[in-house]
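User: Thanks for the earlier help. One more: DJ-1/PfpI domain-containing protein. Can you show the sequence and predicted structure together?

Assistant: Of course, both are below.
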Amino acid sequence: MNKHEMIYGKNMASIIELVEEGRKQQLNPLKIGIFVCPGFMPMDINGAQSVFTIASAEIYFIWKKKELVEGYIGWPTMPTMTFDECPEDLDVLVVGMVPPEIVEDTETLAFFANIGRKARYVIGTCYGSLVLGAAGLLKGKKATSNSNVVPMLPDVGATAVAGSDVVIDGNIYTSGPATGSFDASLLVLEQLLGTPFAQLTELAIEYDPRPPFGTGSPTLAGPEMTAIAQTLTAKLNQQFHQSARNGFKKTRLTENN
């Protein structure tokens, strides 16, 4: 196996040339850690992967083991780095929606409590904000998430902010689902490489959301449709809320010992 196969998966000359040409422009490529696990939500990390790939960053898909995991649903992903292998000088640590079991998983919380405090920037998208909160990273900070999660955030120490905009508090960027991953990543990229580069990246991926139905938030959808959506996820949200409380309690106990 040669160097390019190890890094890029396939020895495609055009892609290798594209990546290496981009990295020539940087003395030190950005180091981006993206958390994956069984049942992770691909749409909540795709924005980060897309934005930072254009920046020719080194992207690490991080999990406990280097074994195939399936994102929700049918999205096979091979982690490229374990918790123990993760460098402590990440430029960005990213987490999206993961199952409730992961929100209170002791090893996962220890990883985020450690690396999340050392990374230059941290992005939590959708239910990923609960992971950051359960790990103790949101204590005393403003944060947001999807509309179902916002009411849970005070239980993990955060000041909840409703709405669809990215919430920035220090080096932590939280957002709602899907497009929020693009929004937060572009804003972090601006801090890392400057406004002109972030603007060019937005153009390179032609990021210009145009939702066809205009129902992408509770405000736009109205109370009737919102009530239906909340009913469909009510049981899962109860599980998330309890897991977030459990995880936050575990973190506090660890910090006090």
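User: Great, one quick takeaway?

Assistant: Residues 1-6 have pLDDT under 50 and may be disordered.
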